[in-house]
Amino acid sequence: MKVQLRHSPAAAVARCFLAGGEPMRVESGAMVAHSAGVTLQAKAEGGILAGLKRSVLAGESFFVSTFTAPPQGGWVDVAPALPGDMLNLQITPDRPFFISRGGWIANSHGVQVESKWGGFANLFGGEGGFGLRAHGEGEIVVGVFGAIDVIDLRPGEPITIDTGHVVAYDLAMNFSIRRAVSGRSIQSLKSGEGFVFDFTGPGRVLLQTRNPGAFAAWAASVASSS
Which DSSP string corresponds to 112-160? Predict the structure, then answer.
């Protein structure tokens, strides 16, 4: 699978070129268009239990769409639900990535994507918790809300990032999740911040410049006041 991005960064679309007979997996509802002869099969990838874990825990769809190119090859266009940019990540056997809720859009057939526990923030109303672990070898396409920032950390280099802005990170890194403000929870309320990741390199972190949770809260407040 080869990926070509168009309309970045505000309304990106990823065109995924497939060889003859090559399949790719796509988040349900993410397909925009495809070339003639491409076939579609939708099923609960890995069975009913895996589908439930993916939908209930990781925030993805119960069903996964598999598109397969005809003998002459073809392409599939995919896009995220929220306006923003997209990025294709190269996954290798020695470098799996964690993908946050809602970030996964598509992957080549050599990559396996499964639900994974990403931290305790979800239990306390944060944006962490379960997400997806991408491993194997091939390409994965992620979508973000806003623009993408890619941060490559040097060995021993630390960084702190709000959990709602983290899209994906290298699982080889050391990281932890904590409250943004130490001490009493009232301080977190005053600051307007929730939970943050503390990462330490070497490794790569992908950020989105807009926070989907914060946007949803703002939209709900506007709707309730109107």
Answer: EEEEEE--GGGGGTSS-SEEEEEEESEEEEEE-SB-EEEEEEPTT-EEE
d(CA 10, CA 163): 22
Q: Give the chain's residues under pLDDT 50.
A: 47, 51-52, 54-59, 120-128, 185-192
Q: Are 82 and 143 in contact (CB under 8 A)?
A: yes
Please tell me the predicted confidence (pLDDT) of residue 126.
42
Q: What is the pLDDT of residue 51?
A: 47
Cα gap 137→110, rounded to integer Å: 5
For the chain, what is the total number of helices (H) and then of strands (E)? 3, 19
CA angle 105, 109, 114 (to 5 degrees): 60
Which secondary-structure segment (H or E) carries 224? helix 212-225
- The reported pTM is 0.80
Pair of tokens at residue 161:
């990032």
Residue type, 107: N
